[in-house]
Write a structure and sequence with these properties.
The structure holds three protein chains of three kinds. Chain A is mostly helical. Chain A has a domain of 46 residues. Chain A contains three helices and one strand; from the N terminus they run βααα. Chain B is mainly alpha-helical. Chain B has a domain of 133 residues: Cytochrome Bc1 Complex, Chain D, domain 2 (Orthogonal Bundle). In chain B, 45% of the residues lie in helices and 6% in strands. The longest helix of chain B has 34 residues. Chain C is globular, with a radius of gyration of 23 Å. Chain C folds into two domains: 251 residues, Cytochrome Bc1 Complex, Chain C, CATH 1.20.810; 112 residues, Helix Hairpins, CATH 1.10.287.980. Chain C contains 13 helices and two strands. The chains are: A mainly alpha, B mainly alpha, C mainly alpha. Chains in contact: A-B, A-C, B-C. Chain B: It is found in: Mitochondrion inner membrane.
Chain lengths: 72, 279, 385
Amino acid sequence: MGKVPIRLREVVYTLSPFQQSVMNGLWKDLPHKAAHHMHNLRDAVLFCVAPIAGIAYYCADFKEKEKLHHRY
Amino acid sequence: MLRQLLSRAAPGWKLGAATLAAGTAGLAAAAGTALADEAEHGLHAPSYPWPHDGFFSSYDHRSIRRGYQVYTQVCATCHSMDLIHYRDLVGVCYTEEEAKEMALNIEVTDGPNDEGEMFERPGKLSDKLPAPYMNEEHARYANGGAYPPDLSLITKARHDGQNYVFSLLLGYREPPAGITVREGLYYNPYFPGGAIAMPKMLNDGGVEYDDGTPATEAQQAKDVVTFLSWAAEPEMDERKLMGTKWIAVLSLVFLTTVYYKRWKWAPLKSRRVIVDVVN
Amino acid sequence: MKRLSIIKQPVLSVLNVHLVDYPSPSNINYFWSFGSIAGICLIVQIATGIFLAMHYTPHVDLAFLSVEHIMRDVEGGWFLRYMHANGASMFFIVVYIHMFRGLYYGSYASPRELLWCIGVVILLLMIITAFIGYVLPWGQMSFWGATVITSLASAIPVVGDSIVTWLWGGFSVDNATLNRFFSLHYLLPFVIVGASVIHLAALHQYGSNNPLGTNSTVDKVGLYPYFYVKDLVAWVAFAIFFSVFIYFYPNVLGHPDNYIPANPMSTPAHIVPEWYFLWVYAILRSIPNKLAGVAAIALVFISLLALPFINTSPIRSSNFRPFHKKFFWLIVADTLLLSWIGQQPVEDPYILVGQCASVFFFIYFLIMVPFLGRFENYLIHYKTR
């Protein structure tokens, strides 16, 4: 029981070449796609761009303070 | 469940976009802190709008010609340009006749001849520009221990070379209060350390241009830097022209490949696959 | 589909199986093109390198001049050299993206452990090849880079100094060093070709991974025409990116000091390796002890090699691993940070930042990779229980 593999049949339905559009899909619903990508980029921004920007800011700030400290 | 998974499978390009953004942030930060130690590395040169800097800009060849005159009349007394030959000037800022004429004015040691002797002959197009000193030791001896570097590659061999050389040439001034410069050195904030062995060489009217351009100090500096930029990158005009053509063509090829890809993939993208159990 | 019988001929049939009819998962995205782009980079480097070698002279007195001879007097020489010099950078950009793709989508996970390990070996070979290639123009950075990096071997106890002398072929970086580096720089690319063929063979054992990280055999389509046309888009985009560097910013990735002929008497203010080594260089410099620094570099590559074996996640793609996804972006940020720190002088605050970044690098590979797999697995079962 249960060891017999289930026999599957795969049927592929395709459109006629005359019904297919080649380029439309690229710009169809572009604002939605852009928003979707932005949403997916959230982790990258939070965990890649933000730490680098933060640490770069820290270093620049450190250097600036050091310079001011040496000045007087 | 599977559909949910599929819809959450993010398209790949976002990896690249984020990496690029992060890289840009890092670069911006690097630019900010690179200015930190100006005394040690010299004052950072301001950015000047060189006419040949743009994507589609070529050298100002009149300026190269004037710059060559500045080099021969001023710089060449101490600085060699070992990688530049008279032939290199032909078609760039001099005609073949002019260049041959200039080459004739120098004496070149050639040989050995049939008797095994070295001999002097007038210069030819294939000769290098004459070097002021026989070797480094000679140059150092004549310049109080300092070695005037060869100028063939100078704008490529210094950070931000063109702006650096330009600023350096015009950067001589009295040392600020509290700073003394050793005998034989000159104060120049753009030079690493602030004290340079080269005295101020460019002065208004110090050069005579054969095209009648008023030879102000700044004009000479601009022309000689243009000449030195050309000497360091003589291929730049050809390079940019070739690049413009090549990238224009590649962009068209790119659009074609995008269409080609989408055309081939359209049947795959618009198919529906039904997997069913066979009873 | 009826094919010409020529495809069934010996050798050609192997090429057909692996490069034409080869079935690939239908859902792989453009990040899967970076493998073939890396192959193109290798071919470009070998092709330009062979022609450069026809004009180059590996001698301390002539090497710098022969490179300038190529740049100025050889017809199209500047193009060849700029393509070769920037091609090395392109190769590393492509390979780093290729590796991060593997990291994100779990391409190294079982059963593709060997595939990943061969890739790490290729990376090592590339690093050695690029390093000794950078010595050949015999500029200031070539000479001093070679001196600093080969001297690292002196950190090895007892035999260190003998190894350095053996590497140099003398008592300083000199003509013998330049000659052997040229010879090895010609040899190693062909070793990389061999390793790449093995890499490809290992890939084709189980086939490509895919962005879902699921069983890749569900829906496959032929490499030709589908991935041929898709890769073509990526190749042309890459060619445009590459061209911008060659034609408009040929020296932006290099160091100006390398246009000063090598001079053993004068040390440059800062000795900086090529940008693609900066992340390793930063880890090396973060540790004040030379031997420990060299050991840390060894540990970097050991961690990379160990990655598939210490990974505990049954899920490959980070799209479905919310915790790992965040750590993936952190390790990307960490590598970029290390690359930035690597070009800064050794002073505050860069020392501290560099040390933290180095520690995080090892925390990710040696602790987070094994831990996150278990942790996420625990959460899944916690939810279903």
